[in-house]
Amino acid sequence: MKKTVLITGASRGIGRAAARLFAREGYAVAIHYNQSEAEAFRLKEELSAQGHTAITVQADVSCRDQVFAMVDKTLQYFSQIDILVCNAGIAHQKLFTDITPREWRNFFAVNLDGMFHCCQAVLPSMLHRKAGKIITLSSMWGLTGASCEVAYSATKAAVIGLTRALAKELGPSGITVNSVAPGVIDTDMNRNLDEASIEALKEETPLGVLGTPEDIAASILFLASPGADFITGQVLSPNGGFII
């Protein structure tokens, strides 16, 4: 029986790269999306054409009822969820003094509350089987903070706190919880930056290049693999040496 993975925010970027990689490794993949329906369906068709097993599931992760419905649908198709990858998130740059209370709450609703809902939705079945792996997506800015990204940094730091605490709570049940905290990655989130800013970020990165979604997908897959069975509560930060 194939192992199954539910990846939130899987219609593009890191999530899409992770979905492709997990599929190639023999996992059945639940591709979550919120608004990017066409992209999610194209990815499903691509994976299906290659002989892989995949479905699409829709939810606004900030809405608890929608998340639980998404997990129920996934369980109806696959009977169990072995791996949860909490990747869905939002980001934008703004001076702290210009952030509105509504924007602040939205950052936490998606980036943190969404993770809370997803973890609580999958845990009953994982606890019943005393097995499962949860991988959260933070950011190197969750470790260090970033100017003009205070709200984003705050949510990603909270993700790391959630990960470490939940790992301690779930360890006795055989469930691991780890986080991946990427550096600067060539995704849609960073394509609003001008060329000078991109070049400056490359210069600040010792390896001299931006990371790719595939780089991060490989880190996610490792934490989902048997090779990471004795790893929990940890933060893996593939960032090209940007922070050490």
Mind sketching the topology for me?
Blueprint: E1 4-7, H1 13-24, E2 28-33, H2 37-49, E3 54-58, H3 64-78, E4 83-86, H4 101-129, E5 132-137, H5 140-144, H6 150-170, E6 175-180, H7 195-204, H8 213-224, E7 235-236
Parallel strand pairs: 1-2, 1-4, 2-3, 4-5, 5-6, 6-7
Helix pairs in contact: 1-8, 3-4, 4-6
Task: Describe this entry's structure for a reader.
The protein is an alpha/beta fold. It has one domain (4-184, 213-236): NAD(P)-binding Rossmann-like Domain (Rossmann fold, 3-Layer(aba) Sandwich), CATH 3.40.50.720. The chain has helices at 13-24, 37-49, 64-78, 101-129, 140-144, 150-170, 195-204, 213-224; strands at 4-7, 28-33, 54-58, 83-86, 132-137, 175-180, 235-236. Strands 3-2-1-4-5-6-7 form a seven-stranded parallel beta sheet, sandwiched between helices. Helix 4 links the parallel strand 4 (83-86) and strand 5 (132-137). The protein starts with a strand and ends in an 8-residue tail after the last strand. The mean pLDDT is 96.
Q: Total strand count, please?
A: 7
Number of domains: 1
Q: What value does the Rg take, in angstroms?
A: 17 Å
Give the low-pLDDT segments: none
CATH class category label:
Alpha Beta
User: In angstroms, what separates the terminal alpha carbons?
Assistant: 40 Å
Run of helices and strands = EHEHEHEHEHHEHHE
Shape: globular
Going by CATH, the architecture would be 3-Layer(aba) Sandwich
**Spatial ordering of strands, largest sheet:** 3-2-1-4-5-6-7
Largest sheet geometry: 7 strands, parallel
- The secondary-structure class comes to alpha/beta
Please name the fourth-level CATH homologous superfamily: NAD(P)-binding Rossmann-like Domain
Strand portion: 5-15%
What's the total helix number? Answer: 8
